[in-house]
Specification:
This protein is α/β, with parallel strands linked by helices and 234 residues long. It is 36% helix and 19% strand. Strands 3-2-4-5-1-6-7-8 form an 8-stranded mixed beta sheet.
């Protein structure tokens, strides 16, 4: 595993074992090195990650697990929010924080974070969905092979008991005080989701593109209360 303070980036297609991989690696720190684990999804051995606490450096001497990480630092949008998240991630090493990111494509994660990863892990399922055999190709920041790790079906099934594999992970962002009224005003003035996304990003640079789309869908369904909770960082 190496000393704490490293940044890991797991990536691979759907069903390739990204989530299983970050969970197994994080559990190793939890069991063998007695560190608390915080994740943006439910873990039997961890606590939920609070984005506002994270961005205010309130996590230290622990492990962070962020699945579907483009919902936190999306690669294809240049924003103040992405710059802030990447700055916090890189500075968190000074707080003894080990961080695991997981995305479907290597290029999905914001470039500054992606290029700072100490370990890149390409995930592959060499078996089938029903009978998975997972392989993890671990390289360093210079793309030199560190290890090939294979996990059998029984281990995968045991790891699957540690989290809900069907959980939908919502985008996370900093609460910047953007109001429901303002968001609904932008929604009313927008004829398409693309327009809404562009206008909302202009209004609030901390919100990710994925978050804008999630808010648009919720407003279309009339779920104002859920939007209100998202805007408050709930």
């Amino acid at each position: 595993m190496g000393e704490i303070k490293m940044l890991w980036h797991f990536y691979g297609l759907q069903g390739s074992g990204k989530s299983v991989g970050v969970v197994i690696f994080a559990q190793d720190f939890y069991i063998n090195k007695v560190f608390k684990v915080y994740a943006n999804f439910g873990l039997t051995f961890g606590e939920l990650l609070d984005m506002n606490r994270f961005l205010n450096f309130q996590y230290n001497n622990c492990v962070l697990v962020i699945d579907e990480a483009y919902g936190v630092a999306e690669a294809h949008i240049k924003s103040k929010g992405n710059d802030t998240v990447s700055w916090v991630i890189l500075q968190s090493r000074k707080k003894d924080v080990e961080t695991f990111f997981a995305t479907q494509n290597e290029g999905d994660l914001y470039k500054r974070i992606r290029e700072s990863a100490h370990r890149k892990v390409l995930c592959e399922n060499m078996g089938t969905d029903k009978h998975p055999i997972l392989r993890y190709h671990v390289t360093n920041q210079y793309d030199r092979l560190i290890a090939n790790i294979q996990i059998d079906e029984d281990t995968v099934k045991e790891a699957g008991k540690l989290f809900n594999t069907k959980e939908i992970i919502m985008p996370m962002y900093l609460n910047t005080g953007c109001t429901l009224e303002k968001v609904k005003e932008i929604f009313k003035d927008s004829k398409t989701k693309k327009t809404f996304k562009t206008l909302l990003l202009k209004e609030n640079q901390y919100i990710s593109g994925d978050t804008c789309e999630a808010i648009y869908d919720l407003l279309e369904d009339g779920k104002d209360e859920r939007v209100q909770k998202l805007l408050k960082g709930a």
